[in-house]
Amino acid sequence: MISNPIPWPGGAKCAACITFDMDADSLIHLAHPNDGHSRTAAISMLRYGPEIAIPRIVESYRQLGIRQTFFIPAWCIEQYPRAVEAILEGGHEIAHHGFLHEHPRELSADEEAHWLDRGIEVIVEATGKRPRGWRAPLYNFSHRSADLLAERGFVYDASLMGDDQPYLLQSAAGQLVELPSHWGMDDWPQYVQSMDLDYMMPIRAPQEGFKIFSQEYEAAWRHGGLWIPVVHPFATGRLARWEIMHRFIEEALERGGVWFAPMEEIAAHVQDVVQSGAWSPRVDKLPHYPEPVQVRRT
User: Fold this and answer.
1) What values do phi and psi take at 293, rounded to 5?
2) Cα–Cα distance between 21 and 5 in angstroms, integer?
């Protein structure tokens, strides 16, 4: 069902990375700049991520012997150094996810570049190296984002939804590996309900909410795809939900045929097979449209 599947390392049937967006309470302060500090219950819900869930997740990964990727707004890196230290000590990748989870598509050109650069500075200070990957907060990749990322030496993006496997983004400034996911692999529709964040969905039982992820995994495993859940420590990192995820990873590793790896390693593999001629990817030229589309009556 994938017409041109990428060859994965070691003959694996699929590649997988559980990408946690550790947004913490940046979401409240962005959504409610005037009174976010007073929304204590919402803040406590979101702080559960770095304070409780991150140590739990990192310990699971240690037990399972895998390394993965965490997308973290730079403000959260500064606010929660213990969580960041735990992630780095586990050998995991920290990737760029904005500064205060600002939405690039809603910013001016100067603002988008400024906050991208400020985030890079914070990540370099915390990790000792420049970020290789980026995910636009709320998937709000703008018509400028590809150029800005390529100019700054990013290797991959993880914001878009255009395929079941990696592909390339080509802009005027250069080329990026796109490691796509989609809303069906995001835990917000399954587990998040918050009046303070204006998001009210019927919360599913942990096992029911996880079915969508496991069914997507089975399809990726059968057809050679890429399995990238987009999940959040305050949501999927909750006790019953993470227990199910831990058990799933354990069973997937026992079954075999899957390559769990950080996103930077998946992107590097894509570059290797492209450069060697072992695989020819689909290339998407950005921006898709240089200006607003207008339809005129004739």
Assistant:
1) -85, 125
2) 27
Query: Which class for 31: exposed (0-12), middle (13-18), buried (19 or more C-beta within 10 A)?
Result: middle
| 15 beta partners | 226, 259
DSSP-assigned states of every residue in 166-219: -EEEEETTEEEEE----GGGBSHHHH-EETTTTEE-PPPPHHHHHHHHHHHHHH
* Residue 289: half-sphere exposure toward Cβ, Cα within 13 Å: 4
Express each pLDDT in 83-124 by its tens digit: 999 999 999 999 999 999 999 999 999 999 999 999 999 999
Secondary structure (3-state) at 102: coil
Instruction: Give CA–CA dist 223/1, Å, rounded.
Output: 6
pTM passes above 0.90: yes
Mind listing the pLDDT tens digit for each residue in 217-273?
A: 999 999 999 999 999 999 999 999 999 999 999 999 999 999 999 999 999 999 999
